[in-house]
Specification:
It is a single chain. This protein is an alpha+beta fold. It has three domains: about 60 residues, no CATH class; about 80 residues, Orthogonal Bundle (DNA polymerase, domain 1), CATH 1.10.150; about 190 residues, Intergrase catalytic core (hpI Integrase, Chain A), CATH 1.10.443.10. Helices cover about 45% and strands about 10% of the residues. It has 14 helices and nine strands. The strands form three sheets. A four-stranded antiparallel beta sheet has the order 1-2-3-4, with helices on one face.
Length: about 400
């Protein structure tokens, strides 16, 4: 009887009406009698073609997982450990360099020390709950990220049929409340910070606030990205520092590639900065470091103030403005709230900030509403004082 061709193995209908499944030895073992690749038949025949196809599918999966043994040999008993599977999982993922570095640290510091030697099938919900509890609440963001990574890896193992269920089901464990409550800078504080910054970095602070750009986006800006005639910045790249090396790539998400309109009052300052401080040529960096490469975060922040000396860079400038709590990234929040106060819609905020989901942009709208309430209260106070 003729065999039906498949991408893996073959099935033929026997004179008896039953079906036989056959596949070639995956290691290419040759038959001593024929010199051709050894063929392996299923240990039994099947009533229906679908049963034979299902059997071949199971064989193919065992081969891809490295668990296949030739018929007649002892079955391979070595279970797949969490560490070996997690390493393969990370290696096969397409990730941004910083994300890959983050996952690697979570695995090495928080997951593999506890679960590394454990067979995947042996990891229980109780063990995961105990590990999660023992991590404590001191670093809630790290704990949430570690749990989320564990759940994702075991979810892949479930899809690969290496486990029968995902033991990660602690409700809300993959989420963490924001530890740092951002208090946007006021316009007066922003003015004080800019005035206290080194001259060649003042434009960076202003663009971070008024255009809500990330540090990595600012550090990789080049002359060709800034169109002062049409008042627009074209964000197409960002730079990150990974294991001491500067890596240039696309922004965090597709939404991060965007055109940001420059507020007109910044244009004269930006022209002066480009003329006095930017590198020459279309590819010249707007904010070059001393070595000609992209500016490092440590150079921007400078020295922190102490009792013996004043600070320098952003550390010193924020202290001078009375905002020692302000992070450079918080300037982006300042710009987002200012944009929201103009009445920008959620979609407009997402486009300006480069957000792919509405959650973060909604926070800025809420912050703007809170500020509007404060303004309304202040107006009432004025009215009350005027009538008394």
């Amino acid at each position: 009887m003729a065999r039906s061709k498949r991408s893996f193995g073959s099935i033929r209908k026997l004179p008896s009406g039953r079906y036989q499944a056959t596949y070639s030895d995956p290691h290419g073992t040759l038959s001593a009698a024929t010199g051709r690749t050894v063929q392996h038949n299923a240990p039994t025949t099947f009533d229906a073609r679908e049963d034979a196809e299902a059997w071949l599918t199971d064989v193919r999966r065992s081969i891809s997982r490295g668990e296949w043994t030739a018929p007649g040999q002892a079955a391979r008993k070595a279970p797949v450990s969490f560490a070996s599977y997690a390493d393969r999982w990370l290696e096969r993922r397409t990730l941004k360099p910083r994300t890959r570095q983050h996952y690697r640290k979570l695995l090495d510091h928080h997951l593999i020390p506890t679960f590394g030697a454990s067979p995947l099938r042996a990891i229980t919900s109780e063990e995961i709950a105990t590990w999660h509890h023992q991590m404590g609440g001191g670093t809630p963001t790290v704990r949430a990220h570690a749990y989320g990574l564990m759940r994702t890896i075991l979810g892949s193992a479930l899809q690969d049929q290496l486990i029968t269920h995902n033991p990660c089901h602690i409700r809300g464990a993959g989420n963490a409340k924001r530890q740092h409550k951002v208090k946007p800078a006021t316009l007066a504080e922003l003015e004080a910070i800019v005035g206290a910054m080194p001259e060649h970095l003042r434009a960076m602070v202003l663009l971070a606030a008024w255009c809500a750009l990330r540090f990595g986006e600012l550090a990789e800006l080049r002359r060709k990205d800034v169109d002062v005639t049409n008042k627009v910045i074209r964000v197409r790249r960002g730079v990150v520092l990974v294991d001491g090396a500067r890596l240039v790539g696309t922004p965090k998400s597709d939404a991060g590639m965007r055109d940001v309109a420059i507020p007109p009052h910044l244009v004269p300052m930006l022209k002066e900065h480009i003329k006095d401080h930017a590198q020459w040529g279309r590819d010249g960096l707007l904010f070059p470091g001393k070595n000609g490469e992209q500016l490092a975060p440590s150079t921007l922040y400078g020295r922190a103030p102490t009792k013996q000396r004043a600070g320098s860079g952003f550390y010193g400038a924020r202290a001078a403005a009375g905002r020692p709590d302000l992070r450079f990234h918080d300037l982006r929040h300042t710009g987002a709230v200012l944009a929201a106060q103009t009445g920008a819609t959620l979609a407009e905020l997402m486009g300006r900030l480069g957000h792919s989901t509405p959650g973060a942009a909604m926070r800025y709208q809420h912050a703007a509403q809170d500020r509007d309430r404060a303004i309304a209260d202040a107006l009432s106070a004025i009215a009350t004082g005027a009538s008394s």
